[in-house]
Amino acid sequence: MKSYFVYILKCSDQSYYTGFTNNLERRLAEHRFGKNKECYTFDKNPLELVWFETFNDVLDAIATEKRIKGWSKIKKEALINNDWDKLVLYSKNYTEFGRPSSSESVDKSSTGSD
Predict the structure, then answer these.
(1) Looking at the domain 4-104, which fold is it?
(2) Helix 84-91 crosses helix 73-80 at what angle (to 10 degrees)?
Protein backbone atom coordinates (compact mmCIF):
# COMPACT_ATOMS: atom_id res chain seq x y z
CA MET A 1 0.00 0.00 0.00
CA LYS A 2 1.31 3.44 -0.95
CA SER A 3 1.93 6.03 1.76
CA TYR A 4 1.53 9.79 1.56
CA PHE A 5 2.83 12.39 3.96
CA VAL A 6 1.72 15.82 5.08
CA TYR A 7 4.53 17.68 6.80
CA ILE A 8 5.43 20.98 8.41
CA LEU A 9 8.89 22.50 8.15
CA LYS A 10 10.13 25.26 10.42
CA CYS A 11 12.16 27.71 8.35
CA SER A 12 15.14 29.80 9.41
CA ASP A 13 12.91 32.91 9.55
CA GLN A 14 10.63 31.09 12.05
CA SER A 15 7.83 30.68 9.52
CA TYR A 16 6.23 27.33 8.72
CA TYR A 17 5.90 25.57 5.41
CA THR A 18 3.27 22.86 4.95
CA GLY A 19 3.64 20.32 2.19
CA PHE A 20 2.51 16.99 0.81
CA THR A 21 4.57 14.19 -0.74
CA ASN A 22 4.69 10.47 -1.39
CA ASN A 23 8.39 10.28 -0.41
CA LEU A 24 9.23 12.29 2.70
CA GLU A 25 13.01 11.72 2.68
CA ARG A 26 13.35 12.72 -0.97
CA ARG A 27 11.15 15.80 -0.54
CA LEU A 28 13.06 16.98 2.53
CA ALA A 29 16.32 16.64 0.59
CA GLU A 30 14.83 18.68 -2.26
CA HIS A 31 13.87 21.43 0.19
CA ARG A 32 17.26 21.40 1.92
CA PHE A 33 19.29 21.40 -1.29
CA GLY A 34 17.16 24.06 -2.94
CA LYS A 35 16.08 22.06 -5.97
CA ASN A 36 13.35 24.51 -6.95
CA LYS A 37 14.10 28.25 -6.88
CA GLU A 38 10.37 28.97 -6.96
CA CYS A 39 9.71 27.03 -3.75
CA TYR A 40 8.95 29.07 -0.63
CA THR A 41 11.72 27.29 1.29
CA PHE A 42 14.45 27.93 -1.30
CA ASP A 43 16.21 30.66 0.71
CA LYS A 44 14.96 29.67 4.17
CA ASN A 45 17.58 27.09 5.25
CA PRO A 46 18.22 25.60 7.65
CA LEU A 47 14.90 23.80 7.68
CA GLU A 48 13.63 21.58 10.45
CA LEU A 49 10.97 18.91 10.07
CA VAL A 50 8.71 19.61 13.05
CA TRP A 51 5.64 17.53 12.25
CA PHE A 52 4.37 14.95 9.82
CA GLU A 53 1.52 12.49 9.47
CA THR A 54 1.27 9.43 7.24
CA PHE A 55 -1.81 8.69 5.13
CA ASN A 56 -2.87 5.71 3.03
CA ASP A 57 -5.42 7.71 1.06
CA VAL A 58 -4.02 10.40 -1.23
CA LEU A 59 -7.24 12.44 -1.07
CA ASP A 60 -7.15 12.51 2.74
CA ALA A 61 -3.54 13.68 2.63
CA ILE A 62 -4.26 16.44 0.12
CA ALA A 63 -7.29 17.62 2.12
CA THR A 64 -5.25 17.69 5.33
CA GLU A 65 -2.44 19.67 3.67
CA LYS A 66 -4.91 22.25 2.35
CA ARG A 67 -6.63 22.51 5.74
CA ILE A 68 -3.36 23.05 7.64
CA LYS A 69 -2.14 25.62 5.10
CA GLY A 70 -5.14 27.74 6.05
CA TRP A 71 -4.33 27.66 9.75
CA SER A 72 -2.75 30.43 11.78
CA LYS A 73 0.82 30.08 12.99
CA ILE A 74 -0.35 29.53 16.59
CA LYS A 75 -2.73 26.78 15.52
CA LYS A 76 0.11 25.04 13.63
CA GLU A 77 2.29 25.34 16.73
CA ALA A 78 -0.45 23.74 18.83
CA LEU A 79 -0.50 20.81 16.39
CA ILE A 80 3.31 20.55 16.38
CA ASN A 81 3.35 20.57 20.19
CA ASN A 82 0.46 18.09 20.51
CA ASP A 83 -1.38 20.69 22.57
CA TRP A 84 -4.91 19.52 21.88
CA ASP A 85 -6.54 22.03 24.23
CA LYS A 86 -5.01 24.96 22.36
CA LEU A 87 -5.72 23.34 19.01
CA VAL A 88 -9.40 23.17 19.92
CA LEU A 89 -9.33 26.75 21.23
CA TYR A 90 -7.67 28.08 18.07
CA SER A 91 -10.17 26.16 15.95
CA LYS A 92 -12.98 28.30 17.29
CA ASN A 93 -14.11 31.52 15.72
CA TYR A 94 -11.90 34.46 16.70
CA THR A 95 -14.91 36.18 18.24
CA GLU A 96 -15.17 33.30 20.71
CA PHE A 97 -11.63 33.62 22.10
CA GLY A 98 -10.28 36.93 20.79
CA ARG A 99 -7.78 37.69 18.08
CA PRO A 100 -4.23 36.41 18.55
CA SER A 101 -1.59 38.93 19.56
CA SER A 102 0.83 40.18 16.90
CA SER A 103 3.33 37.48 17.91
CA GLU A 104 0.62 34.89 17.27
CA SER A 105 -0.54 36.27 13.94
CA VAL A 106 -1.62 34.22 10.96
CA ASP A 107 1.30 32.58 9.17
CA LYS A 108 1.02 33.58 5.50
CA SER A 109 4.21 31.81 4.45
CA SER A 110 2.75 28.41 3.78
CA THR A 111 0.62 29.15 0.77
CA GLY A 112 2.83 27.35 -1.74
CA SER A 113 2.29 23.76 -2.73
CA ASP A 114 4.40 20.86 -3.85
Answers:
(1) GIY-YIG endonuclease (3.40.1440)
(2) 150
Q: Where are the domains of the chain?
A: 4-104
CA pair distance 29, 4, nearest whole angstrom: 16
Chain centre to alpha carbon of residue 114: 12
The Cα 51–Cα 107 span in angstroms is 16
Rounded Cα distance, 79 and 36, in Å: 27
Q: What are 45-85's pLDDT values in tens digits?
A: 999 999 999 999 999 999 999 999 999 999 999 999 999 99
Please give the DSSP secondary-structure letter assigned to residue 113.
-
Per-residue pLDDT tens over the stretch 66-77: 999 999 999 999
What is the pTM (predicted TM-score) of this model?
0.80
Alpha-carbon distance of 88 to 60, in angstroms, equals 20
Q: By three-state DSSP, how is residue 10 classified?
A: strand
